[in-house]
Amino acid sequence: MENKRHIDVLIIGAGPAGSVCGSLLKQAGVECLIVDQATFPRDKVCGGGLTVKAWRLLDMLLPGIQYNYRPITRMRCQFENDAVCEFQAEYPIRMTRRKDFDYSLLQYYLDHGGELMKGSFARFDQQADGQVLVTLKSGEQISCRYLVAADGSNSQIRQQIHGDSKLRAMFLEQFDEGKESDDVFVHFSNNYRPGVFYKFSSVGRDMYGYASVETNDDMPRHKAGFKQALTKFGVPVGRICGAYIQLDTVPHTADNVILIGDAGGFANKLTGEGLYDAFKTAANAKRAIVEGRSFSETNKEEFRKMEHQKKVYEFFFSPIGWRLLRWALRCPRIIKWLFDAKMKRETFRA
């Protein structure tokens, strides 16, 4: 089409990965456009917790970013009906409402001159001149030098390149509006291994969740398991929502098409935490674009970490790992040391 639009960088998805990547590109003077089908602010299934490494990284990448959060340091863990392991974290987890948090990131991008367009991705095609031609479901076409996929776990760009994911986790959530506890609680049980039941105390509400990585297409069975866990802890069953998180990290196949955040499978294989890796892969995508390097190179530490996490996940939910976890939960000092070390240990090159 002669009237198709040309842009230097086209980002599909205005969630944390897309908005942060767009803001970083604007800081570097790179022309970019974010396309998203949603109207913001919008809800999203996610605990919404920012660990210390995540909020430190975000503060570094987006100077002056403001968002509403509730700091939580009280951590409680339990295996079956054993005694609860409780400790105070060295640094707080900043609990947010993803609807508001994501909108704050997007607004930062817009306030710094970013452009947002509402639309739905349909497909992309590589062109002979090295450009990428993106077609939206409306029929509109946009050509770009770089296409950045930040369209989440259900990424259509990922689907076009790699097909269906083999490893994914299912997260079910229920909210108790108006109730604010002061802790994060995680319960381990053979009834939902490999998986956990958890409660996050957030802004203006408590959030209960259930995660599982086994036979994820059996939604009714998992909902029944979640309801059983809610009942066990005296929580009235209400409206349950759910989403899948891709845990397969896909390889980088083309230098001008970059997958970041959940679209690339960059979520913690053990905890499901995705915000830190969304920020980090967004920054590494910006480096690849601005410096003219391959994303395989600028993001190599993330790729290496994801491979390592697969091994950690397999051991954690193995019979030996499960017994070791149960033993460790009897020693709060050990759990606190491991938790504090993991929450802050990763470093990042800006």
UniProtKB/TrEMBL annotation:
From the UniProt record, which GO molecular function terms apply?
FAD binding
Domain of life from the UniProt record = Bacteria
Pfam families on file: FAD_binding_3
* FAD-binding domain segment(s): 7-162
Q: What SUPFAM superfamilies does this protein's entry cite?
A: FAD/NAD(P)-binding domain
The record's section on InterPro entries has: FAD-bd, FAD/NAD-bd_sf, Geranylgeranyl_reductase
Name of the protein this chain belongs to: Dehydrogenase (Flavoprotein)
Read off the lineage from the record. Bacteria, Pseudomonadati, Bacteroidota, Bacteroidia, Bacteroidales
